Amino acid sequence: MNTLETVAESEKLQRIAIDPISRVEGHGKVTLLLDENHHIRQARLHIVEFRGFEKFIQGRPYWELPIVVQRLCGICPVSHHLAAAKAIDQLVGARELTPTAEKIRRLLHLGQTLQSHAVHFFHLASPDFLFDFDDPVAHRNIVGVMADHPEIARQGVLLRKYGQEVIRVIAGKRVHGVATVPGGVNKALTAADRDYLLTDLEQMIQWSQAVIGLMRQAFEQNPGYFIHFATIRSNFLSLVRADGALDLYHGGLRAKNRRGGQVFDHLDYQRYFQVIHEQVKSWTYMKFPFIASLGPDNGWYRVGPLARVNCCDFISTPLAEVERQYFVGLGQGQPIQATLAYHWARMIELLYSAEAIKELLHDPEILGSDLVVRGEMTQEGIGVVEAPRGTLFHHYRINEDGLVEKANLIVSTTNNNQAMNESIRQVAEHYLDGKELTEPLLNQIEVAVRAYDPCLSCATHALGKMPLVVELTDADGSMVDCLVRDADGEIRRE
C-alpha cells in the first residue's frame, strides 16, 4: 500500500472507478481519488488481466514461437508473428532474407496495419469525433455511427475487410494464420493472388485519403481542444529506415526528446536492452519502460503512429508524404505532442499502408519462388517491428537443444504505459478537478486512453508472484475465510 492510499483511508478520500474502460482491446480500469471538494488527488490506469506468455513459453522449441505468441492478441497477431519470426531468423543464422520472402512479410504486415488502424478508428474511436461527450451511452458507439453515418461505417468495415484479405491470402486465415518459417515464408504469392488483391485497392486508397480529410475537419472546427486535450510533452521512439523514412517492418531505433532533439539514432535494435530499461509497480500488471540515459522520471516515451510520424524524416509513398508534411507543419519545427493527434497520424499510416501495398503488388519480385535461407545456429535472437500500436520487441534465448530458456516481450502498449497515465492525469486535472463527476465527464478519461489504441491483453504480465485472492464460502454463500497473496508474494488473511 503506497502513501497516498494510506492517506485515502485516513482522510476518507472518495474512490471513483471507470471499470472497464470501453472501446479498447482487453480489460483495464481507471481509478480516481477525490477529496471532499472533488479535487483529484490521484489518477491511475490499472491493467487487471494477466497473461504470462514470457513464462509459459519457456521450455518450448524455438520454431513454435511465431505460432504460439500470436495468440497474445486477436487484433494484432501478425505483429507478434513477425517479431517472433525475425528473432527466430537470427537463431537459425538467416541474417538476410531473400527479396521475395522479405517483401511477402512486408505485404503481410501492411495488411495487418491497415486492418488494425481501420477497426480502431472506425469501430472504436470515431464516436469520439462524430458525437458529443454527453451523447447517450447507448448511441455513442459503432451502432450509433452506423445509424447516423452509414457511409463512414461502411468504409470502415470494407477497409478492415481488405486488410484481412491481404492477411488471409498470405497466411491462410484472417486471424492466427501462419506465414513464416525460420529464415523465410512458407509459400509464394501467385499472380492470381496479386490480381485479386489489386481489385479494390484504388478504392481503399481513396477512402484512406477521405478519412484524413475528416481529421483535418475535426481539427479546424475546434483547434484549441484538439491541441490541448490530454496533451503531454514526451520523448518519442520508433524504427526508421536507413535513409530516415517511415518503416514498419525493419530499421534502426531512433529516439527524440521532447523538443525534437536526437537522443539516439539508427541504433541497432539488437542493442535495445542497453538503452531501454523497465520499472515494475505494484498496482498494475503492465511494466514502465524508459530510456536509460534519461532515467525513469524523464526517460518515459511514446510509441505508435504519432511517434513514427514525428520521428521519421519522410514517408516513401507520395500521397501519405503530402499528408505528413501538412501534419508536422502544424508543429512549427517542434514534435506534435497533442494526444488526439494519434488518430490523425494513424490515418496517415492507413493511407501509407494502402499505397505501399500497391507498390509491393506491382513489384515483380513479390511473385518469386526463392523463399528460405539458413545459416549457422545461434542461441539468442531479437526481433523488432512497428506494430500498429508502436514498437514491439521480442527477445529469446535458447539452449543447445533449441528450447527457450528466457523470453522478454516489450509490447507497444507497455511502451506507452507511462504516457497513458500522464494523459489521464492531465484530463483529470483540467476537466474533472473540482467538479461533480458525471458519466460524460468520466468518458473524457476513456477518450484519452482510446487515443493510444491500447492493446491491454498484449501488454500484461507480472514480475514475481501473481496477486491472488482465494475465498472459501459455505453452502449458503457466506464467506468462511479469505486469503490474499500480494504481488510481492506476501500472504495475509482478510
SS content category: alpha+beta
- Main sheet? 4 strands, mixed
Portion of residues in beta strands equals 15-25%
Mean pLDDT: 86
Q: What Rg do the Cα atoms give?
A: 23 Å
**How are the strands ordered across the major sheet?**
8-7-6-11
- Helix count equals 18
Q: What proportion of the residues is helical, as a percent range?
A: 40-55%
Low-confidence stretches: 1-10, 459-470
Question: What's the total number of strands?
Answer: 17
Report the span from N to C terminus.
15 Å
Q: What would you call the shape? A: globular
Architecture overview:
Helix 4 packs antiparallel against helix 5, helix 9 runs antiparallel to helix 15 and helix 17 runs antiparallel to helix 18. The strands form six sheets. Strands 8-7-6-11 form a four-stranded mixed sheet. A three-stranded antiparallel sheet has the order 1-2-3, with helices on one face. Strands 12-13-14 form a three-stranded antiparallel sheet. The longest helix has 32 residues, at 99-130. By secondary structure, the chain is α+β, with helices and mostly antiparallel strands. It contains 18 helices and 17 strands. Strand 16 (479-485) and strand 17 (491-493) form a beta hairpin. The protein has helices spanning 3-11, 53-56, 65-68, 77-91, 99-130, 142-148, 150-171, 191-198, 201-221, 223-228, 272-275, 295-298, 305-311, 318-329, 341-361, 412-415, 417-432, 439-451, and strands at 14-18, 28-34, 40-47, 180-181, 184-185, 235-240, 252-256, 262-267, 276-279, 288-291, 301-302, 380-387, 390-398, 404-410, 468-473, 479-485, 491-493. The chain is 42% helix and 18% strand. Residues 1-10 and 459-470 have low confidence and may be disordered. It is globular.
